Amino acid sequence: MDHRNLADAAVRAIADHFGALRSGARVSEAASRTVAEVVSVVRSVCGVGSPVLEDLRRNPASCGVRTHAAALLWRALDEDGSAGPALGEALGRSDVAY
User: Fold this and answer.
1) Is this prediction's pTM over 0.85?
2) Torsion of CA 93, 62, 73, 44, to 10 degrees
3) Alpha helices of the chain — where are they, by DSSP H?
4) Which of 32, 42, 40, 33 has its CA nearest to residue 76?
5) Is residue 98 over pLDDT 50?
């Protein structure tokens, strides 16, 4: 999976997870652990102080927020390609589905 696809998939998984939590939907422990791992990789690539995750947490359904977050993550992955495999491995698990 290339960096753009990884970024899109990571943002989709994170935003969908945050959206499910905000709506009160049941989220499996396995999915929560996987998304936590994805979030950890995103934090390490984008920087802990990056607003990307907080923007997704506040407004997970916003197409603009998702697009912006994916673009930032894609650029960060291009600059630091070492995180790509870890992100791909976490996203490859089947437990991110709700």
Assistant:
1) yes
2) -70
3) 3-23, 29-46, 52-58, 63-79, 84-91
4) 42
5) no
